[in-house]
Amino acid sequence: MTQTAPCHILSAGFSVHRKPFHMSGGDSVQYYLLRLQTEGRSRTMVDGVLTTVESGDLMLFAPSDPYYLSIDKESYPVGKPRIESGDYHIFCGGPWIEEWWTRKQRPLVLHMPLSDYFLGLFRQIVLEQRRLSNPSPEISACYLQILCLEIDRLMSEQPAVSPKGYLAYRMKQYVEEHAAYPFRLEDVAGHVDISVSRAVHLFKEAFGTTIVKYVNDVRLDMARERITFSPMPLEHVSETCGFANYTYFHRLFRGRFGMSPKQYRAYSRQTEMTSLP
């Protein structure tokens, strides 16, 4: 690692715990630590209170912060009480990290959406750290900077909502991340461990629309983009945007945009041609 690097990674990895694990409250971290709970639960101390860390919770520790971590048997909605915990962890440092850390007040634990993109940044950093040939610390440092900036962006985008509103927000993210694939209302509700009827109510209360309508709106926006910018056959557009059949897609598309998918493709191409110099 060169001395001019803005940040560096000391270690990064993914851990799965199926047995009890404890870090003493007297221990402290020597570097900055980013720990993302990806599955199961653990516990840490927040302002002297033992606090449950759920899937999606990001723990942030600065050098010399007391580090308490406990993983024990927990009760879950399905099955008997068990030990289950998985996490990504990154120990890092450097002047860029120090400057990033001081830009704003950072809570010890904050909740992050477990999107494929966000998880992918952690995965990529871990993969880069595991390279045995042609290692490039500069690439790892760039990924780390992107991850930190993404954390700030997600923090700014998350509204200050009630616990009920936050469940609705998580369901909305689930819909947006899985819109291209078939799923059921049960899948959306199961994502936040509530019943379908409660999920439907909370979503409508928070966003003023139904889950089904929002799913279709997201899929139609995806379809409109692919119809405009790709040569993909219209039936394939329908399928890759999560619609079960073309007839249903055709009816929804016409209702939303006032013309059929075929007419919209012709219209968008004509508009593009007339706008050329």
Automatic annotation (TrEMBL):
Top-level taxon in the UniProt lineage: Bacteria
UniProtKB keywords: DNA-binding, Transcription, Transcription regulation
Protein name: AraC family transcriptional regulator
Domain HTH araC/xylS-type: from-to ranges: 169-267
Biological source species: Paenibacillus helianthi
Coiled coil: none
